[in-house]
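To whoever is on call:

I kicked off a structure prediction for a single chain this morning and the downstream step that reads the tokens threw a length-mismatch warning. I double-checked the sequence; it's 203 residues and nothing unusual in it as far as I can see. Pasting both halves so you can look.
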Amino acid sequence: MILLVHGPNLNLLGEREPERYGRETLPEIERLVTGACAAYGVEVAAFQSNAEGALLDFLQAHRHGAEGVIVNPGALAHTSRALPECLSALGCPVVEVHLDNPYAREPAPGPSLVAGVARGQIVGLGALGYHYAAVHLCDLLARAAAEAPGAAAAPSIAAQLARARPPAARPPPAVGSGAEIAPESEEEEIPEDLTARGDYEPL
């Protein structure tokens, strides 16, 4: 299972500063990641909260089933020490994603504390960053399975990338195109913690 975790203010995606963060909503991003992972037979559990403690509780609750994490910590990337500690304790690969490029801002927000425990970081690619993070983690899982004793040889990277796009699903929209990711079926929305709100600046 891959965990898809969003931090403060990311529940407002699609309506807040679309020129910076794009017009894709959180449920649309969830469908994008779920579709990429489905081609590998990997499940996705998604969660968003404006409260740091709720994010930690979600990660800890799924610590035994997590095989990878895609996380957009929002402003917590630069302020939280508990979040990277929790991610490190899971013992699985983490990819940090930011819709825009925080390092291009003036003034720059400072280094990401989450980056120190992440396998990789994708910034500035909009919703496409989530797609690439999902493919990367699924590729790692496929290779690990292929290297297990008695397993068949791993397919080529090209074959795995081709599988990552579900049949009959259109490719993700170009960054900044304003195109929306149309839902293919009725799906459950990302659980959103409504018990707390913070004065955070989303990434």
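Update from on-call: the warning came from a stale cache, not from the record. Cleared it. Sanity check on the structure: The CA atoms of residues 98 and 123 lie 5 Å apart.
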